[in-house]
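User: Could you walk me through two proteins back to back? I'd like the raw sequence and the structure tokens for each, with a short line separating them so I can tell where one ends and the next begins.

Assistant: Of course. Protein one, sequence then structure:
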Amino acid sequence: MKFARLSAILTLSLISSIGCRTIVVSSWVPSDTSQAFAQVRVLLSEASSEESFKSTGTIEVWDANDLVIKKAYEFLSMDPTLIKAPIKITSNAGYLEYKGGKYRGHIEIKPSNGKILILNIVNIETYLMSVVPSEVPASWPEEALKAQAVCARTYVVREMIAKRKAPYDVDTTTNTQVYRGMAKENQKTNQAVEDTQGLILLYNGSPIQSFFHSNSGGVTEDPLNVWGNKVEYLTSVRSDYDKEGDNYAWEEKMDQAQINSALASLGVGEVQDLIVVNRFASSRVNEIDVIGSATTKRIKATEFRKLLGATKLKSTRFGIRRESDGKFFVKGLGSGHGVGLSQWGSYAMAKENFDYKEILNHYYKGVSFARMAQN
């Protein structure tokens, strides 16, 4: 997520009842009131020469002038690569099925920089009804679900601001937030979205970068140590509640061939050893020496994790040694980059009767709550 600055106008404070709790929030109105935040542009895929869409009702294709240029019943097949201007696909059933996924809102097919993009244009609250249970289990305590809803809403608003001139706001993957359409919607998470409707987190009047991750391993990380950017409200904090998470502690073994293959791009030859050089205050590794048959190279642990893969090296809070059998043994804590809200920490805090506001204030320091003004 890029660091975008946005001045905002905080208007009259109001009392808002959220579920059974009452908090003081403000109304957030962006300084550029021409930008609408009602709908999110989600990239589903790049178009091929043959695409199909399904629904249980009448499907209509609209041109750039909002004229219906084609109608179909339940099934539409087309070659999007032939279009020269954006078109919109709608269904009176309220959803469209594309590549096995069902999506509310409508589909937009849009030429952009030599590519044809397929987007889902969907109401922001409806979007969150899929994102929240895609990011955390719907069976979690309701206060953890509310915390995730506020995080996810703030995150997408920040992305919409940063990508206003881009062809889309978010995709469906962990590059932004996981979004799986109607298939993931759940009554519990729908309620969490409804109970926090419109609420976002602000710092100095602007929506924050509400980073989150699976499990901090006991302490969150300063983004300066991950991405090189200092963010005032994202300081490192203790997160002892993370111990309840299934991914709090982990171990991995990798053989010589796996290590050589993963680190081949470093050009050190056959890897002889891997030595942790130094750590941050959070105990996460800062730098590691890759000792090879040809040369030794010192790299950042974040780069080392990218090379090995996040499934092998779940976090940079780890230790590593070479065993007598030649394999490399890794033992670590936590899962993810470690910045911002720990989802498993939020889960355990909710079980201990912390409300969602207390959870969010623990992970994001000095922030305030605001309700998005209606467009």
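----
Protein two, same layout:
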Amino acid sequence: MQKYFFLLKYSTNRKIIFIFVGGSYLENTDKNMIINKLSVLNYKNINQAEVVCSVKTNCFFGNNGMGKTNLLDAIYYLSFCKSHIHAPDSRLIRTGEEFCILQGIYDYNGNEEDIFCSIRRSQRKQFKRNKKEYERLSEHIGLLPLVMVSPADSDLIRGGSDERRRFIDLIISQHDRPYLNALIQYNKALMQRNVLLREQRDDASLYDVFEMQMATHGRLIYEKREMFIRALVPVFNEYHHLICSSGETVGLEYVSQLPGSDFMNMLRDTRAKDRLSGYSSAGIHKDDMIMTLDGQLMRHIGSQGQNKTCLIALKLAQFSYMSSRSVTKPILLLDDIFDKLDAERVEKIIGLVSGDRFGQIFITDTNREYLDRMLEAIGQDYALFKVERGDVRLMENKSVRI
């Protein structure tokens, strides 16, 4: 096996500026975004916590139900203005409290970003960047790219097509503002058409208006989704091969009604049927992403370990895709990813996330042994925290310099 030796030089703000590889200097153009400090008040079961984060790896261990996942969800919320589990905001506030607050202090390519969120019962939430409130939350999406791997991702395999569309939309929207705007406009026109259908309206001109909007925005959405899946497939296959040495073959396929069809005519042709059902039966809101294992549907034949391997490979492929299209590396959140995996696959995943291609990482697990092995393998800056009944305590903080 070929060996590589690295000599890292640091600038005054602790950023790597050169890497020595095999006898030559290469300027490192990678830009990193990290969260320096996370402050949480009354979020789910967390009463109050201030976490000073490592620039590389942050590990949280403790028994189930103690609040480890809630800390990662707080970081997720600061990126996407919503919870990873799609819970309504009212359910995020700690029982017996009237509000919750999240705040993250980020180092964004050398500049400080202060992201603040306040959620109050029966009130509109506040979301601020550097003390200035957003007019529209969509303006924030994409600023803080993030990838999260969690047990809830099993819905990508076993859940409905809406889960897989949400996965696709969330990734593309983080780096493609026209796509996000088209998605918002398409969903608005879809909702208005559905209102006409439920009200049994027979105004052809009104249908034409909303269907024209759906056709215009839907075509752009379809094309960008198709391009995304095409780009993701080889990276997904590569990661799955690196994790799984059993010779299993996985696949991704984008399924849509649009190829070879005139979207506008398709909507007109389904009006009569749609008025009977009260919803729009044709459009990109019916698209799906099919995952296969050895040519068969993953959800039909995959074991728990196979499904989890597939999902981890998919999320690592998502990370690579986003890294290639963002001005900074995404933050990676790994929530309880080692459960249901054999020791060989665990070792390979540890080896992958230990690499330089990943930036700041947050990991949770009930088994401290896995975390200690990972920290030893990574050999870089880390912080280790224990979480118990919503209380977060720093156990170990190590700064490694080469």
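The longest helix spans residues 204-243.

Let me know if you want the two compared in more detail.
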